[in-house]
Automatic annotation (TrEMBL):
Native organism taxonomy: Bacteria, Pseudomonadati, Bacteroidota, Cytophagia, Cytophagales
Pfam family, one: DUF3857
Domain DUF3857: 64-217
Alphabetic keyword roster: Signal
Name this protein carries in UniProt: DUF3857 domain-containing protein
Keyword Signal in annotation: yes
Domain of life according to the entry: Bacteria
Species in which this protein is naturally found: Algoriphagus jejuensis
Annotated signal peptide: 1-19
Length: 645
């Protein structure tokens, strides 16, 4: 059964290339003539052809790879150095063989073909079982067409890597074909909007193929650091295998566990490591009184003890390198190890809690695949019942207060580990992240300076982001004034003070002054009263969008500025009121002004209600953000009033 997962949406232009040939040297005239990718101008290179053909032979997955690349600009010449990484391990788990390559340059339309030999191929050991085949194409020029092919063998036939259709540069033609053997049955796992809606598919007696055309380059876009979660690709998970043939037909055995069995295996793994234990853990590690208080209060005390007394280092991973006794002795551990130790403390306090395995953002999947295989999970959360309320807990961030979950773990669901009852559950992290900014603006008569007194209250994840930025400045022995320098240009930043109350009230408060010197000497004062917003410049300037826009979490920003009209001045110009949104109201903006006599009040409210916005709504979002940026950057103009007769 082939399951389709619609992960993202993208606008794909019609194919511009003629039918592609998949044999080395068979270059057609349209490929020779191509000097720019029409739908992605400026690309330094383009994959004319990317092809993979897989089959299982003697319990080894063999995949024949073939690529044809054209260099379009000087920047694209870097593709003359090809690197193919593979995992050899200690038992030659993966290997590369049958490498061939050639480069074709053109002199007056005449092809000059150079076939590469062994001196152009290098194998490099990167350590930890990882190796890399490097192909160095000689005399790579603008207009060169590079071709190479190789066979990759993989002894792991339980989970087949399959094929990724997109590359670091545009791809005109990408095809993958696999021949399945009758005695092995696989689940097909597809991902990506193009794969789900635009792939050309064939199925014929165990032979399956998928073709995609005119794909945009893979690269990070503003507000999308986890693009790997939306890449077009196809993979395969072994579901069952034929154990025997009988007179009544083939006898099949399941390879995939149930969620319950998969969960029990992980619980057993953690138990062997010592993280599930019957004797009270807190007596060994805590010098704290946990005999009184609510469950939540006890959980908070234990959380801060682990966070503040253990060094958080190492990769966040579902597997642990240390046993629990080793962790307690070293007082150092990876986030997953700290979470499991924390679980032991809560359990010994009689608090019901369990690990939840998740596939974090950026790990490669935006949705859980509904088949019980473990490789789709990479990190751990803890779910605890505190005073009758379920709460997700995490120890990934050493600055985060109790109850915060790392943003990369804000996913839709995970695998709850419970003995004989593990299952998929939904994850919904509750918070109220916002930024409140108040500015009081006045002209100081004595100094002649325009002084803006600013106060910012950053709540929840806005506060945590501010705390990290402040810590980075302090660790680098840099002045706190650098927190604001990007926004204030001609203004001088003074008297910065920070009050970190994340632990007590989920907020970080910052106050400071921004000062325009010698303002009183000017006949006209032109300045932006709302200088703090990160959206005073539109981050979305590209014409198209390949991946969704991800603001990471829902939040609000509210700006209020009170301008005291200086004696002898009058308002000459200021922004008008405006209220805008995009279809569906996923993101909204309100700007209003009010003249209160000697005080001119400005209020702006920016709210992201749905943090993930699909590419099909990108045009609306781009226009919206341009309108927001224009409004936030529009200055107030004060002029000196004419002298009375």
């Amino acid at each position: 059964m082939i399951r389709k997962f619609l992960i993202a949406a993208a606008f794909i232009l019609p194919s511009l290339a003629a039918a592609q040939t998949l044999k080395m040297g068979e270059i057609n005239q349209s490929e020779i003539d191509l000097n720019e990718v029409a739908y992605e101008p400026g690309a330094g290179a383009v994959y004319l052809v990317a092809s993979g053909e897989s089959r299982i032979n003697n319990s080894i997955l063999e995949t024949q790879h073939f690529y044809r690349i054209k260099i379009l600009s000087e920047a694209g010449k870097e593709h003359g150095d090809v690197r193919i990484r593979f995992y050899a391990g200690t038992g030659n788990v993966e290997n590369i063989s049958s490498v061939k390559a050639q480069i074709t340059n053109y002199d007056g339309g005449r092809p000059l073909v150079t076939k590469l030999d062994k001196s152009n191929f290098f194998e490099v050991d990167l350590g930890d079982g990882v190796k890399e085949l490097r192909i160095s194409f000689p005399n790579t020029q603008v207009g060169s067409i590079l071709e190479y092919s190789y066979k990759k063998g993989d002894k792991n036939i339980e989970f087949l890597d399959g094929w990724t259709f997109q590359r670091s540069v545009p791809v005109l033609f990408s095809k993958y074909q696999i021949t399945m053997v009758p005695h092995l049955e696989y689940k097909t796992i597809g991902q990506g909007a193009n794969f789900s809606t635009k792939s050309e598919r064939t199925s014929d007696y165990g032979n399956y193929s998928w073709t995609l055309r005119d794909l945009y380059a893979l690269k990070e876009e503003p507000y999308m650091k986890n693009y790997r979660d939306y890449v077009d690709r196809v993979e395969f998970q072994l579901s069952r295998y034929q154990r025997a043939a009988t007179t009544s037909g083939p006898e099949w055995a399941d390879y995939l566990n149930t969620w319950e069995k998969l969960g029990d295996e992980m619980i057993e793994y953690y138990s062997v490591k010592g993280f599930y234990r019957t004797n009270p853990l807190e007596r060994e590690v805590l010098s704290l009184d946990l005999s009184s208080g609510t469950q939540k209060e006890k959980a908070e005390i234990a959380y801060y003890y682990i966070r503040d007394n253990f060094v958080n280092e190492g990769s966040d991973w579902i597997y642990t390198e240390q046993t629990l006794p080793q962790l307690l002795k070293s007082k150092k551990g990876a986030p997953g190890e700290l979470i499991l130790a924390y679980m032991g403390i809560l359990k010994s306090l009689g608090i019901e809690c369990s690990p939840v395995l998740i596939g974090s953002k950026g790990y490669g999947r935006s949705e859980i695949v509904p088949f019980p295989f473990l490789s789709q999970f990479d990190e751990i959360l803890l779910i605890a019942n505190l005073d009758g309320q379920n709460q997700f807990l995490d120890l990934s961030d050493p600055l985060a207060p109790f109850g915060y979950v790392d943003l990369d773990k804000h996913v839709k669901g995970g695998l709850l580990l419970k003995k004989n009852a593990s299952s998929l559950i939904s994850i919904d992290i509750k918070h109220s992240s916002n930024k409140l900014v108040f500015s009081n603006i006045k002209l100081d008569k004595e100094s002649g300076e325009l002084v803006i007194d600013n106060s910012i209250r950053n709540s929840f994840y806005e506060g945590l982001a501010a705390a990290h930025k402040i810590e980075d400045l302090e660790d680098g022995n840099k002045p706190l004034e650098e927190f604001f320098n990007e926004n204030y240009q001609a203004f001088e930043i003074r008297n910065v003070s920070v009050e970190n109350r994340l632990q007590e009230r989920n907020m970080v408060n910052i106050s400071f002054q921004s000062v325009l010197k010698n303002a009183a000497q000017e006949e006209m004062l032109v300045f932006n009263p709302l200088q703090i917003s990160q959206f005073s410049k539109n981050p979305f300037t590209q014409d198209f969008r390949v991946f969704p826009v991800d603001f990471e979490y829902a939040f609000k920003e509210t700006y209020t500025a009170n301008l005291v009209i200086p004696e002898g001045y009058e308002l000459d110009d200021y922004p008008t009121n405006e209220s805008i949104t995009i279809p569906g109201s996923a993101i909204t903006f309100l700007y209003s002004t009010e003249n209160l006599g000697d005080i001119f009040k400005i209020t702006a409210k920016f709210e992201v209600r749905e943090p993930l916005i699909s590419p099909v709504r990108y045009a609306d979002l781009k226009f919206f953000m341009e309108s927001v940026a224009t409004k936030l950057a529009t200055p107030v103009i004060l002029i000196k009033a004419p002298a009375a007769d």
